[in-house]
User: What shape does this take?
Amino acid sequence: MIHHFITGVAGFIGSHLAEQLIADGHRVSGMDDFSLGRMENIAAVHGHGRFFIVRGDAADSTKVTRVLQDATEWGAKPDMVWHLASNSDIAAGVADTTVDFRKTLQTTFAALQASKAAGVRRFALASTSAVYGERQNAMTEDSGPLLPISNYGAAKLASEALVSAAAETSLDRAWVFRFPNVVGSRMTHGALYDFRGRLRQGSETLSVLGDGTQTKPYLHVSEVVDAMKWIVAKADGRRNVFNIGPKGSGTKVSFLAEQTVAKLSPGTAIAYAGGDRGWVGDVPRFEYSTAKLAALGWKPKMSSDEAVLRAIDELAGE
Assistant: This one.
């Protein structure tokens, strides 16, 4: 039995990870400030004898250190920290430039400081394809220079740098996961989430940012969790950086809009705002290589389109 500590444990990806680790027979502790996380997300594990949660701000290193101490008293010192707490909305970071600094970079610093104080020497970071910026060639883990075009990507890249530095001093092993667009139940942001909200408000027309040709890879949250677990189990370098993505090419925003309308509000018109991107910092299309992860032995079961369709079904039922 391994003791896993998760920041952002009641959030979108964190709650799914906690459920799977509990199902695998492990012990899970964690913290969440519930700005995006929800108690209903962890309903399946809350009250379980191998699950422990504390409400707290992951940007406060003193608080994170205290929660790690509480988790140690509850179930022995955690074997590793999964740092998933962060801002997950690129547009929000454009509107308020302090959001990514506090919720992404500062939480990473706090989690690393707390891990060092507690003597936890294994650390996993949820990062993003946004660290690459706009590139003409395939995004591989050794691409460079990395020039993100959003505060979100910049804060994630800086977080990766902090983790890399910690691997030289206080960590024995570190994993960095670069996600594409992750979709599925319990989503808190993104195009599918926004489309569902607008359609449920009874809008006669679904307004879509951009011209609909923006094409990106979408991965279902269940596969993200499976890939993360696989990487931690199989990648044993001091620093392990992996792109995680779906089978094949990406999905057009127009496909997301059309399929969401078909599921939730058949016949609703779709109006595209125009332009090649939806917002400042949006990367409209990119080629995302997962060859390194395939060489490690993990491959996704779903294509990007299949992940989107499954997520639409799940969102419709929430």
Summary: The chain has ten helices and 13 strands.
